[in-house]
Amino acid sequence: MPRFSALALILTLSAAAPALAQEFKAGDITVDKAWTRATPKGADAGAGYLTIHNTGAAPDKLTGGSAAFATVEIHVMKTENGVMQMRELKEGLDLPAHSLVRLSPGGYHIMFTHLKKPLEKGSKVTATLTFEHAGSVAVEFPVEAVGAGAPAPMKGGDMKGMKM
């Protein structure tokens, strides 16, 4: 019976997985693993993180975006001469053909400026990202805790490596 119960659990979780793992598509571009952090009251800016897959044979470029809750910009953080600096990528972010580009804390990210209200843990915000060739796609960003390093794992843990 335990073998049957484990198999039933795996089948149930795998059936639910597509609903939990959100992907957003525009042409050859797929965006997934989007998230943002909650912001303290009075904060003027927040950041969004995600993964972009360019499955096409041609390069593309993330050129900008828009949102009802904030202004959307593409930024990068990097260390130069021992000093961490952040700057806007006014020309956009290149996405080579057949590539995966991660926007994550301490590197490339979406900057949400001029926030109209704080980003609250447990809520979701939507921003439309614009790509040079693929067009625009609306992306939903679940809001994690202030200072979060990545989205919280699914309840029940990771099913990889599970033995029956």
Task: Explain what you see.
By secondary structure, the chain is mainly beta. It has a single domain, classed as Immunoglobulin-like (Sandwich). 12% of the residues lie in helices and 48% in strands. Strands 1, 2, 3, 4, 5, 6, 7, 8, 9, 10 and 11 form an eleven-stranded mixed β-sheet that branches. It starts with a helix and ends in a 20-residue tail after the last strand. The N terminus and C terminus are likely disordered.
CATH top level class name: Mainly Beta
Intertermini distance: 11 Å
Could you please say which CATH topology applies here?
Immunoglobulin-like
Q: Do you know the CATH architecture?
A: Sandwich
DSSP helix count? 1
Instruction: Round the mean pLDDT to the nearest integer and report it.
Output: 84
Please describe the biggest sheet, giving its number of strands, its sense, and whether it closes into a barrel: 11 strands, mixed
**Overall geometry:** globular
Low-confidence stretches: 3-20, 154-164
List the helices and strands and how they pair.
Elements: H1 2-20, E1 23-26, E2 29-37, E3 45-54, E4 60-66, E5 71-80, E6 83-88, E7 93-95, E8 99-103, E9 108-113, E10 124-131, E11 135-144
Parallel strand pairs: 2-11
Antiparallel strand pairs: 1-2, 2-3, 3-8, 3-9, 4-7, 4-10, 5-6, 5-9, 10-11
